[in-house]
Amino acid sequence: MNSAPFAASVSVVVPAMNEAANLPHVFATLPGWVDEVVLVDGNSTDDTVAVAKALRPGLRVVTQTGRGKGNALIEGFAAATGDIIVMIDADGSTDGREIAAFVTALTEGADFAKGSRFVPGGGSDDISPTRSLGNRVLTLITNRLHGTRYTDLCYGYNAFWAHHLDALALDCDGFEIETLMNVRAARAGLVISEVPSHERSRIHGASNLHAVRDGLRVLRTILRERRRAASPQREHASVRPRAASM
Q1: DSSP conformational letter for 139
Q2: How far apart are CA 49 and CA 56, in angstroms?
Q3: d(Cα 11, Cα 109) in Å, to the nearest integer?
Q4: What is the mean pLDDT of each run of 10 residues along the chain (246 residues)?
Q5: Are 168 and 77 spatial neighbours (Cβ–Cβ below 8 Å)?
Q6: Are 119 and 137 in contact (CB under 8 A)?
Q7: Which of 38, 44, 41 lies closest to 12, judged by CA?
Q8: CB contact at 8 A, 35 and 62
Q9: Region entry Disordered: which residue ranges (predicted)?
Q10: Residues 205/19, Cβ–Cβ less than 8 Å
Q11: Sign of torsion, CA 85 87 90 95?
Q12: How many distinct structural domains can be found in the chain?
């Protein structure tokens, strides 16, 4: 590990199932100053765990007890020991070299740093027109119902201070985990900073994401969280776009 540029310790949580072919690229992008990498293995049938351990001495491995990305992240967050938790994907779509921008946003005052492909400096090599339209519609609905000003709802590159885990109270299994985090962070009154991020295409293998099915799960999550808001709606969460700092 290189000399850390931040006073806070940083844990990176990586949910993975059968991603052995992608991990060499993913781990190569992680900054040397990251304090901890937690791999949550979804009971892979390939060499995911062996490859990860060979690439990253000191790696922490959590064997997932449930199913789904949401469950994997919740179990990984519970195992992380850093002051800051960063969540990235194991398919090569999220660039570990951007972690510095997320951590910088947090150390400069944000409670929750969420990646956005749709602010200046962000982009995507992977999102289809159908997924892009669905994301924009779901983002609009969330902003209307929850008083947020998000530009990108369904993106899995996020970071937050670990002491806010209780406020997020995460309790879902699937890809709707990102939406749940975004909505509950806003409901809890956390200071939210959007960080430009460029999504790459998956390197090897096929995604488990199903646009229609998972889009409906996201929509149900948005509506359920609105119904569950028992107290008067809080003041709009502060969402500040920022320039990426590498």
Answers
A1: H
A2: 10
A3: 18
A4: 78 97 97 97 96 96 95 97 97 96 98 96 85 89 95 94 97 92 95 96 69 77 85 50 43
A5: no
A6: no
A7: 38
A8: no
A9: 227-246
A10: yes
A11: negative
A12: 1
- CATH number for the domain that contains residue 46: 3.90.550.10
Cβ proximity of 156 and 176 under 8 Å = no
Assess if residue 97 is contained within a domain.
yes
Q: In what order do the strands lie in the sheet with 60-63?
A: 60-63, 36-41, 10-16, 84-87, 158-161, 112-116, 192-196, 239-241
The SS3 of residue 196 is: strand
Give residue 246's pLDDT.
33
Q: Supply 194's token pair.
A: 């959007």
Classify residue 70: in a domain, yes or no: yes
- Tokens at 246, concatenated: 């590498």
Contact 146, 226 (CB under 8 A): yes
Asked whether residue 245 is domain-assigned, the answer is no
> Can you give the residue range of the structural domain that contains 114?
10-229
Between helix 129-146 and helix 177-187 the angle, nearest 10°, is 20
Which residues sit opposite 195 in a β-bridge? 115
- In this structure, what token pair is assigned to residue 244? 């990426």
